[in-house]
Specification:
This protein has about 140 residues and is an alpha+beta fold. The protein contains four helices and seven strands; from the N terminus they run βααβββαβαββ. Helix 1 (about 15-20) runs antiparallel to helix 2.
């Protein structure tokens, strides 16, 4: 049974913060304050998979900028990161956007996850890879 829900900043803020602080990624943990600010300007997408994980992305002019996909440490290795990514890609495929861009630290497990999912390294910025995934459109 799927447990998806759109993020509601009033009822889900504690859950989002808890996942950020318990996913094992220093970069996601440090990004939590950005989520709070981003909700008050611009367009953003965020869905939670129960209390286990989430994605958070902003809508740019011609692409989607993924800010984070996070899964609580105790739920890693169960395919949830992949499930969350595919949920986001499925949602975007019908929206007319064809590129998902993001950064990932070079020395975190996430870089290996992204390469396995077909992401391409587009550039190096400091200690991060600038990456992208092309979104396959569905009818």
């Amino acid at each position: 049974m799927e447990h998806w829900r759109n993020y509601n900043h009033i009822t889900d803020d504690k859950v989002l913060k808890d996942i950020c602080y318990n996913c094992g990624s220093a970069s996601v943990k440090s990004t939590y304050p950005f989520f709070r600010r981003a909700m008050y300007y611009g367009k953003w997408l965020c869905e939670l998979y129960g209390d286990k994980g989430f994605y958070f992305a902003t809508v740019a002019r011609n692409h989607i900028r993924l800010i984070a996909i996070a899964v609580r440490k105790e739920h890693r290795g169960q395919g949830l990161g992949k499930k969350i990514l595919f949920r986001l890609l499925q949602r975007l495929s019908g929206a007319g956007l064809d590129t998902l861009t993001f950064r990932t630290p070079m020395n975190e497990e996430a870089q290996h996850f992204w390469l396995k999912q077909g992401a391409k390294i587009m550039d190096v910025k400091g200690n991060d890879y600038e990456m992208q995934i092309k979104i396959i459109k569905t009818e």
